[in-house]
Amino acid sequence: MVEVLEHDVVIVGSGLAGLRAAIEASRVSRGKLSVAVVTKTQVMRSHSVSAEGGTAAVLYPEEGDSFESHIYDTIKGSDFLADQNAVELFVHSAPREIIQLEHWGMPWARREDGRIAQRAFGGMSYPRACFAEDKVGFFEMQTLYDTALKWDNITFYQEWFATSLIVEENRFRGLTAIEMKTGELHAVKAKSCIIATGGAGRMYTFATFGHSSTPDGLYIAYKAGAPLKDMEFVQFHPTGLVPSGILITEAARGEGGVLLNAKEERFLKRYAPQKMELAPRDIVSRAMYTEILEGRGVEGPDGMSHLWLDLTVIEPEKLKRRLAGIREICVKLAGIDPVNEKIPVRPVAHYYMGGIHTNIYGATPIAGLWAAGEAACISINGANRLGSNSTIECLVWGRITGEAAARYAMENGFSSSLPTEQVQKEEKRIFDGLLGKAPRINPYEVKKKMQRTMESHCHIYRDEKSMIEGLRMIRELKQLPYMGVEDSSRAYNTNLTNVLEIEAMVNVGEIIVTAALQRRESRGAHARRDYPKRDDQNWLSHTLIHYTVEGPELSYAPVHIDKYQPVERKY
Amino acid sequence: MSGTSEVLLRVYRYDPSNGGKPRYQNYRVPTFRGMTVLDALIYIKENLDPTLSIRYSCRMASCGSCGMTINGLPRLACFTQISELRSKYILVQPLRNLPIIKDLVADLDEFFNKHKLVKPYLIRRDVEEQENPREQYRQSEEELERYVQFAYCIKCALCYSACPVVSTDKSFPGPQALAQLYRYYIDTRDEAREERIRIVDGAHGIWRCHFADSCSQVCPKGVDPALAIQLMRREMMFGPSKG
């Protein structure tokens, strides 16, 4: 019999958004609500720790920055697909989060006067990225995790893998999760829930994501009836370290680093003559990709063409202090010291603008269910996110959804007992259907094939012919008999959790390509060779993706436009 | 190292449901340039033996998941290149000083509990301002420098695994927790110095450390917990330093 645990609020995921939400739900209720954080990793392991360069907020309007400027930069960066009321809420809420973290112990870099320092980032017209060396996400995670330990009403279920959401009559009721240490399946009954599991993660072979970044959180919400939104928009960060794909922060360029091709030429002058290396990521990545395609890349020893990120132009003491983390990674994992050598880089899958469809307060169409952080599509990022806007998005909507889910829990009681039918079905599916059943096809091979398909058929540049082929390949993979778990042991069976992750990856792969194939225009990170222009007449709209047994079903919703009419993006 | 060479990993295996007897299993893994021990373990998991349990995530030494004992020393598997071990034979075991859940996966509950015990968060008297901030607390770069090194801790438990005191005295907080105590103690924004001293001022507390320094030698992030313990003890013996 499956044990049923009861909490007021359950948060799935323990990255920046999840931890910020857990603290806010506690604050709002003065510690009276019981808050559960269900997370498939240990708490400090979420990939938010690998966010490097900065967190955007307008701190010093008296010195020339303004809300207006941050709002417009974000909307223009999004190629006008962001919802403008969401961006407004976002920008106005950001400064408070920076200072709140500072009050909880965040080691922000300081200026001479002891106030928080800021640095330049791509697509931002003012240096407004707050930073702590180049380990911003790590220090933010530490600050939130440590602060969360103050709250005895928060229970961490570490290494609990959520397998399904229980939704009845469009209302959230609870979830099921595998406790990895024992292999037991549990049901968690709660009044409200926040999904904060990050984006779709490692869908590509060359990616900045950690191994645990997979779309299982998105997938269980989607299957429970929450639509996904704008999944075709995948951000390729310009500078992934070759060959591992480890992120080299945009702050490296913010601090003065330059990009060079094989001829040692600063090629961005041909693509973004004003902003150069600090143009938004979609533009810089396309420029780099074009340089490589046109033969101006460098052939690396690992068979990957790359370009150079040159940081030797930065004053060495500044580099060592402000970019300590990436220097350590380059020295240790690539044998390169950026103080006197160029770094081999190429564009790398990094972020998903899309996610679970929510309103501007993070509420999904399912009562009692919210989403925050990269898992959500609010949408402030539209077709292309600006660097330094994601960590602050996690903080802002961690707070907003934490408060909303807490208030909902305080106003609503539990309904009668949890529907046991679905819990039993889940138990049967996992333990009778999967555990100890060696599959005929190696699921890890399916994962690799899926990633290679995404890499070759739905990357920086896309076209109909190639995506139709890619979609066919992914649908074929979906049908293969890979759903089985050779490992029959109960304790810490990552073979089991991997197979569930791979199932989510293959299905979300199908979703991304389906949505990308339908959008017959180029906007932000979605660049179609066969439709090279933005088409506001037909496509100034969000894609909504609904689950059906046959596969993803698409519909479209208008973009919220207030003040800013779409114009051509030039940098 | 060329693409065709191979390395032999001898891996600790343990499954509590399987009679609970540990054993070792050998795997031959083809190597590539820059390959880490974590890459090799993932290769095993995905190609040779899906029953091997490993804990890992970021593969860039920031998440602290993949601490294990490699050729006798606690290390992060993702930050240990096969080539740097200069050996065709690699012994991989779980972290020491901790219970084992399965194979290479240690149970870190006691380690995380000790971290929590030192109250690793800023304690202030102006609670209203701290929770509803109106303006920044100022801090100079010099004041930041005094604690930031100790804030590099990724909670990977390598130091805990290397500590000879932890291995004999389970109520000793261990180097990680003590370093975090000092990190908050020395932060100019914190106002709970006496309370922090009381937490560790006991026979099984900070005085149990006998400066083996093994914690600092194995730390992958340069935290130097032994230094933090020394500085903390100085505070406790000679009174709070200025600042």
Structural class per helix/strand content of chain B?
alpha+beta
- Strand segment tally of chain A: 22
Over the alpha carbons, how many angstroms does the gyration radius of chain A reach? Answer: 23 Å
Percentage of residues in strands of chain A: 15-25%
CA(first)-CA(last) distance of chain B: 52 Å
Global mean pLDDT of chain A: 97
Fraction of residues of chain B in helices?
25-40%
- Taking pLDDT < 50 over at least 5 consecutive residues as the criterion, the unreliable ranges of chain B are none
Task: Outline the low-pLDDT stretches of chain A.
Answer: none
Please state roughly what percent of the residues of chain B sit in beta strands, choosing from under 5%, 5-15%, 15-25%, 25-35%, 35-45% or over 45%.
5-15%
Q: Work out the count of structural domains of chain B.
A: 2
What would you say this structure looks like, in words?
The complex is a heterodimer of chains A (571) and B (243). The N and C termini of chain A lie far apart (61 Å). Chain A has 571 residues and is an alpha/beta fold. The radius of gyration of chain A is 23 Å and the shape is globular. Chain A contains 15 helices and 22 strands. The model of chain A has no long low-confidence stretch (mean pLDDT 97). Chain A has helices at 16-28, 67-77, 84-103, 136-148, 216-223, 251-254, 281-293, 316-322, 324-334, 390-411, 420-432, 443-457, 464-479, 494-518, 536-539; strands at residues 3-12, 35-39, 55-56, 118-119, 129-130, 154-158, 160-168, 171-179, 184-195, 228-229, 234-241, 258-260, 298-299, 305-310, 343-352, 355-357, 369-371, 376-377, 461-462, 527-528, 541-546, 553-558. In chain A, the strands form five sheets. In chain A, strands 1, 2, 6, 7, 8, 9 and 17 form a seven-stranded mixed β-sheet that branches. Chain A has a five-stranded mixed β-sheet with strand order 18-16-10-21-22. Chain B folds into two domains: 6-106, Ubiquitin-like (UB roll) (Roll), CATH 3.10.20; 109-238, Alpha-helical ferredoxin (Fumarate Reductase Iron-sulfur Protein, Chain B, domain 2, Orthogonal Bundle). In chain B, 34% of the residues lie in helices and 14% in strands. In chain B, the strands form two sheets. A five-stranded mixed β-sheet of chain B has the order 2-1-5-3-4. In chain B, strands 6-7 form a two-stranded antiparallel ribbon. In chain B, strand 6 and strand 7 form a beta hairpin. Chain B starts with 5 loop residues before the first strand and ends in a 5-residue tail after the last helix. The interface between A and B is large, with 65 and 65 residues.
